[in-house]
Amino acid sequence: MQPSLTLYGRTFSSHLLLGSAQYPSLTVLRSAIASAQPAMVTVALRRLHPATAPSPGEENHFLQFLQSLAIPLLPNTAGCYDIDTAITTAHMARELFNTEWIKLELIGDAYTLQPDMEKMIPACKALLDDGFKVLPYCTDDLIACRRLVEVGCLALMPWAAPIGSGKGPLNPFALKLLRARLPDIALIVDAGLGLPSHAAQVMEWGFDGVLVNSAVSASGDPVAMARAFALAVESGKEAYHAGAMPERDLAVASTPTLDTPFWQQATH
Amino acid sequence: MDTLSIPTSPNRAANLAVLGAGLCGRLIAWRALQAGCAVDLFELRAQEDERGAAFAAAAMISPLAESAGTECFFGELGVAALPIWQTYLAHLASATASQPKNNPSIFFQQAGTLVVAHPRDRALQQNFWAQLQEVRSKWQGADPCPAFFRLEGEALSSQEPALSGRFNSAIMLTGEGQIDNLALLLQLQTLILALGGNIHWQTPMSANELIQTSRYSAIIDCRGVGAKTQWRGNGNLRGVRGEVMRVHLPEISLNRPIRLLHPRYPLYIAPKPHQEFVIGATVIESEDESPISVQSAMELQSALYAVHPGFAEARILAQKTALRPTLEDHRPRIIVDLPHRLWQINGLSRHGYMIAPIVVESALASIGQNLKIPLSFLPSLPFPTLFATPA
Predict the structure, then answer these.
(1) Which residue of B has its CA nearest to A24?
(2) Which residues, 6 or more positions from A114, have their beta carbon under 8 angstroms from its beta carbon?
(3) Residue from B40, B36, B42 nearest B12 by CA
(4) How far apart are CA A55 and CA B332, in angstroms?
């Protein structure tokens, strides 16, 4: 993990990404973003506009508001269940925001909102070939993730738990495996985080960043929670770089015990 | 339209122009006429056109529910507005007493709201309860925070027999209510005309145009989303899309609105007269006024079914889409632009029927103070933060 977050050659000083949905008001959203200073803010396009691209001069004030925040925007294809819709939505986003960045969400199950990895692979390939910088929301399946890398993804966004569940990382083994086996890919844990400690934890494992939405927007005080997450991400990152002490099953006194007879110093 | 061609009424206390015949526009026009002013009400749409937030709304009055997870401010406004609704309804009843057949009394119910959740959404119910506690602890209104409590088993069934056996527990929010907005809007229209007001349908009008004419002592802009490009307050005014459905079903009776907890937005089933129910509303950050989407229709209909499967046989009468005029902090504002004799009322968002009376009376107090005519019966202004000057 590099000291700064690098995605498709662009560096960001923050390792936290924030989603923009479901805040009590735009004022709270604005304050939360100001308090967290995230690298990027995601925005869903699917329910904002009719199926056709907006005509020139037709403004959507929510989108205008987001653009006024002067933070890089990362449009996403939330709500897309098939490849064609996802690709169309990505194109609309590129036009609307004049950006090549796209977070690709292609869902296969309405209750868990689990990404459909089989469809993700050709969808990613099509968008990457078209010049998009794709950040795919994916499962923690190593083989499926590898396929995404093979078609050209330089970053992945594996889930910690189902979107909005707040459970924190449910499969640490799988996440750590991804980190170990894909050392050169930017890995941002996305979905299912609920507490800043969850964010700190994945950063301590060496992940490059986290993305949260409900954890902040559905909290009692989104502005405070946004800051808490920013601090947690920084703290986890610092800890990773500092190198954590080794974990042991036995106590190891930090003060010397020279005066204790040797038969009391058994380490079993 | 050439405003100079509208005949003046020299015997009136003042000449007022009101823009927008939605809820606020009609209330302001009616109240000003009652006080002896001449009123010209300008409305973009045709008389029969029932689009717009005022018509689409389920017309809930939910101070507690609307404060949970947001701000007590909305509930404090709502609680202050409730007695004003009573006064308004009494005025309307006496004004129409001579013609009861054409003007039946307006349905107004204040039996509380019952909040339920699908068993899978139990976490939402716990969260909602915690949010209500938060509302109670942060409440700052002059009137006390309305009471709320859990209802279970027998107690729940006796309050709301239709829910018997379907939900183990619910949260009762006391003091909450609803109004038949369609009847109210119609009656206000009738009275505006009866009191000598002029309604200019299908007449687009801008505040700037009226300011130029200098024929009005005050111009009150109540156009909601229609005022978007002429909003003089701070920040942007935007529309937030909402979709509702109205169904008819004789077999089920609800004594009060039911709120079904939903992960993304508040969903209400409001029982209306004539065995009709309004279910709504979605909340989508979009200014698209096209008809209800399949997804939204499915969500609203499945909510009905989840509350009672008998709704499967309900007949769908109508669906409506409207845009809630919303400011950045979701609070309402009255912009007072004295040099131009302009008042802009906007940003009532999802709280229209809950707070309109207090917002309207506050605006009338401000206008009356300026014109030196008593327009409002408010003894003081309980919510000074409603007011702002142009940005």
Answers:
(1) B70
(2) A107, A108, A139, A159, A162
(3) B36
(4) 30
What are the distances in angstroms from CA B227 to CA B54, B207, B208, B223, B343? 15, 9, 11, 5, 12
| C-alpha dihedral (A157, A163, A169, A175), degrees to nearest 10 | -30
Task: Indicate the SS3 state at residue B70.
Answer: coil
Distance from CA of A228 to the nearest CA of B (A): 19
Q: Return per-residue pLDDT of chain B as tens, 391 residues.
A: 454 455 555 567 799 999 999 999 999 999 999 999 999 999 999 999 999 999 999 999 999 999 999 999 999 999 999 999 999 999 999 998 888 777 888 999 999 999 999 888 888 999 999 999 999 999 999 999 999 999 999 999 999 999 998 898 999 999 999 999 999 999 999 999 999 999 999 999 999 999 998 899 999 999 999 999 999 999 899 999 999 999 999 999 999 999 999 888 889 999 999 999 999 999 999 999 999 999 999 999 999 999 999 999 999 999 999 999 999 999 999 999 999 999 999 999 999 999 999 999 999 999 999 999 999 999 999 999 999 999 9
CB-based contact A27 B329, cutoff 8 Å: yes
Calpha distance A91→A113 (Å, rounded): 22
Beta-carbon separation of A22 and B285 below 8 A? no
- Least Cα distance to B324 among B55, B41, B49 occurs for B55
Q: What is the DSSP string of B259-305?
A: EE--SSS-EEEEEETTTEEEEE---BS----PPPPHHHHHHHHHHHH
**Can you give the pLDDT at residue B344?**
98
In angstroms, the CA B281 to CA B321 distance is 9
The nearest CA of chain A is from the CA of B74 a distance in Å of 12
Closest residue in A to B282 (Cα) is A47
- Max Cα distance, chain A (Å): 85
B186 closest CA partner among B34, B342, B54: B54
- Secondary-structure breakdown of chain B: helix, strand, coil percentages, each rounded to the nearest 5: 40, 25, 40
Write out residues 34-63 of A within 8 Å (CB-CB) of B.
47-50, 59-62
**Measured between beta carbons, which residues in chain A are less than 8 angstroms from residue B287?**
59-61
Q: What is the ipTM of this complex?
A: 0.77
CA distance B288 to chain A (A): 7
What is the full DSSP assignment across B299-327?
HHHHHHHHH-GGGGGPEEEEEEEEEEEE-
Q: Which one of A22, A24, A61 has the shortest CB-CB distance to B236?
A: A61
CB contact under 8 A, A25 and B328: yes
Contact between A76 and A20 under an 8 Å Cβ cutoff? The reply is: no
CB contact under 8 A, B328 and A164: no
A33 to A7, A181, B224: CA distances (angstroms) = 20, 33, 28
**Radius of gyration of chain B from its Cα atoms, rounded to whole angstroms:** 21
Cβ(A238)–Cβ(A3) below 8 Å: no
Active site residue A103: yes
Q: Which of A61, A73, A112, A167 to probe by mutation at the B interface, max B CB count within 10 Å?
A: A61
Cβ contacts from A onto B, under 8 A: 49
The residue type of A198 is H
Asked if A14 and A38 count as a contact pair (C-beta separation under 8 A), the reply is yes
